[in-house]
């Protein structure tokens, strides 16, 4: 009995990997074995960095709130402590946006918690 190989599925599998490697540099974009490793590594980075993105944005928001609060003589921790104590239900994302783009509203919040 002849050996059966499903070349249609094999080719599609290789094409899928090479399509994902589009835009890579050198042999990573057109040599299957190299592209396969590069795509796998890229997917690992993508998975990891979806988690890291959340950390990075929280860190950015904290820096922006801290900068805004220090203009009015408060540290970040003092400001956030007073925000929680006064039951102001604004998260860090919104507070950071106000500190950057709407300083009058941020000042009103600072005055309310002082």
UniProtKB/TrEMBL annotation:
Classification via InterPro entries: Ribosomal_bL20 (IPR005813), RIBOSOMAL_L20_CS (IPR049946), Ribosomal_protein_bL20_C (IPR035566)
Keywords, comma-separated and alphabetical: Ribonucleoprotein, Ribosomal protein, RNA-binding, rRNA-binding
Coiled-coil ranges (or none): none
One Gene Ontology biological process: ribosomal large subunit assembly
One Pfam family from the record: Ribosomal_L20
Cellular component annotations (GO), alphabetically ordered: ribonucleoprotein complex; ribosome
The keyword Ribosomal protein appears for this protein: yes
Gene3D superfamilies according to UniProt: 6.10.160.10, Ribosomal protein L20
PROSITE patterns assigned: RIBOSOMAL_L20 (PS00937)
GO molecular function per UniProt: rRNA binding; structural constituent of ribosome
Domain of life where this protein originates: Bacteria
Function per UniProt: Binds directly to 23S ribosomal RNA and is necessary for the in vitro assembly process of the 50S ribosomal subunit. It is not involved in the protein synthesizing functions of that subunit.
Family affiliation: Belongs to the bacterial ribosomal protein bL20 family.
Record's protein name: Large ribosomal subunit protein bL20
